Amino acid sequence: MDLFTAMDISASGMTAQRTRMNVISSNIANAHTTRTDEGGPYRRRDVIFRENPFENQLSAVTVEGIVNDPTPGKKVYDPSSPDADDQGYVTNPNVNLMEEMVNMIGATQAFEANTTAVKTQKDMALKALQIGRN
Amino acid sequence: MRIELTDIPRLQIEGNVGAREKKPAVSFLDTLTDAVGAANSQAVEANRSALALARGENGNIHETMIAMQKADIDIRLLVAVTNKLIDAYNQLNQLR
To answer: Which of A23, A32, A86, B59 makes the best surface tag, with the fewest CB within 10 Å?
Structure first.
C-alpha cells in the first residue's frame, strides 16, 4: 500500500542497522579472542549494505553480507601464553575498541534517524486525517 | 407550450444521472467493507507480530512497533471515514 511504503523502507533501514550493531557486538565481544575454528585469532567483521529496489525508483536497504577485515592483528610479546608463536608473540584480534565504539554511535544514530522518519510519517498521516475535522 | 418543450429533455438528463449514481452507491459499500477488512488484517498482523515477539520467535522490535503503528493509522482512517458517513446520514436525516 502506498500509505505505508515509507514505513517499510524505514523498517529495512532499521533492520540493516540492527545487523550492523550485531556485527559490532561480535567484534567487541571477541576483542581478545585468540582461537577460532579457522585457526588464529578472531578477525574483525564488517557489514556490507546494498540498495534493494522497492518500487517506483525507491530503494530499501538490504545486508549484502558480512566480510572479514584483512588488516593484520597486533602482535604482543607474551611467551607464557599457549597461543604464542616460536618467538613468544601472540597475535591479537585486529579489533580496535575505539573504532568499534565510534561505529556503534554511528549505528545508533542511523537507527534513530530511521525511527524519526517513521514517527514523521505517522504524524503526517494523522495530520492528513485531521483535514476537515472541526 | 415553450415550457413543456424545455422541460422534457431536462427530465431525461436527470433520469440518466440518477441511473449512473445507483452503481457507485453499491461499490462504496464494497470499498468500505474492503477497508474494514484491510484495517482488520493490519490489526491481526500487528497482534501476531507482538505475540511472536513476546514468545521470542521474532526479535524484531521495530517491525512489531511499525506493524502496530500501521494498524493504528488504518483503524483511525476507517473511523474517520465511518464518522464522515454517519455525519452525512445525519445531515440527510435532518432534511425536512
So the answer is: A86
